Amino acid sequence: MKKLNKELIADIVAQGASGVKKAFEIFVGQGVEVIVPEAKQMDTTEVLKSIANGVKAENSLVAYSQGMESPEGIVMLVIERETALRLVDLLSGEPVGTAGLLENYEVSAILETLNVVSNAFLTAIADGIGEKMIFGVPKIVTAEKISQLDNFHCSDCDNLVFEMKFKIGDYELPAKFYTLFTEELSNFLD
Known about the structure:
This protein is of the alpha+beta class. The chain is built from six helices and six strands; from the N terminus they run αβαββααβαββα.
């Protein structure tokens, strides 16, 4: 993936956020706002150190999906555990506070959230750069792998980092979405 200019990144944000908004509104049956206050390209090694140092595995959920074709790499959704539980309740129409544990159903809802976010933003990126992008089934990253990310080094990697908030009703739910285009990382997490 080539270096993207600010205008193209702004277009990706607008198209991606719109796609997420439409999908979430179908799930929750009410208005949803997707706010992306920051989107930028960064050095991948710096991004991975930030993820490893900033994510406390027991307090966050990290979902990822691998690229199936060129460009190879991964997408990751990082969301704090309490935020994930609130999101699960809102997406399933339950009162906030109902989900207390991240069990199969709740984890599935977060993996589906990654699907929605990645489909919307990867479609926007693909449209912007003129490449086809296909990503596989989402999975959860283990705490052990997260702790090893700060030791991972990548030779020639491209990425985008999106800070976002999903506003559903009275709730703002922050998350980070990463696109990391490198085959080495894809193999490392698998």
